[in-house]
Design brief:
Layout lengths: L13 H24 L10 H13 L4 H8 L3 H13 L3 E5 L7 E5 L1 H21 L5 H27 L11 H5 L10
Antiparallel strand pairs: 1-2
Helix pairs in contact: 2-5, 3-4
């Protein structure tokens, strides 16, 4: 059985690694094109940042900005900036923390939950169409490997953030910007 590549071994299979990095670039472009094309009336109706924030709030319930940022691997200022239009549109509301009346948490509104589910349904239908000729095993394998890849990207980004200067505000991380948004994308 061949031994796995070490985390820094880029010479063992240069053709494979070149093909992989190229396919990732193509995937990122096509994922964005697909999101913009979408299905039905839901197409292009929710950007990636909004989708990931709403999905995280649905999975974890009311959450403070710092905890939300930490869980998503982005800066608090980025969360604050991305949440503002969601609050303005009535998808998210600010509420008093149930255990600490001085703190504020963000939570989905019923409208936010309904919109998230509408977009999830549309995206699920799209993925079903795109993989209609795949076996259930192929879908599961792809999901497992994509989840594993996203986890690796999140861990690499976390390591890079540890080396950043305190107070530096970089905004949205590359993995979040470039990955196809979906339920649980390696950190969310």
């Amino acid at each position: 059985m061949p031994s796995p590549l070490s985390p820094t071994d880029t010479t063992a299979a240069p053709d494979l690694l070149n093909d992989l990095q190229h396919q990732l670039a193509v995937f990122a472009r096509r994922a964005e094109q697909t999101r913009l094309a979408g299905l039905g009336q839901v197409r292009n109706s929710m950007d990636r940042a909004a989708y990931l924030l709403l999905n995280r709030l649905e999975q974890h319930g009311p959450t403070g900005v710092k905890a939300l940022a930490a869980g998503m691997g982005i800066d608090s200022s980025t969360v604050t900036r991305q949440v503002a239009p969601l609050v303005d549109s009535g998808l998210v509301k600010r509420a008093t923390h149930p255990e600490d009346g001085r703190a504020v948490v963000l939570e989905l509104t019923p409208l936010g939950t309904a919109r998230l589910h509408e977009v999830q349904d549309s995206r699920r239908e799209l993925v079903a169409r795109l993989t209609s000729d795949w076996t259930p095993g192929e879908r599961a394998t792809f999901c497992t490997l994509l989840t594993r890849f996203n986890t690796s990207v999140s861990q690499a980004n976390a390591g890079q953030q540890e080396g950043r200067q305190p107070g530096r505000q970089d905004g949205e991380e590359p993995a979040e910007r470039d990955a196809l948004a979906g339920p649980r994308d390696g950190g969310d």
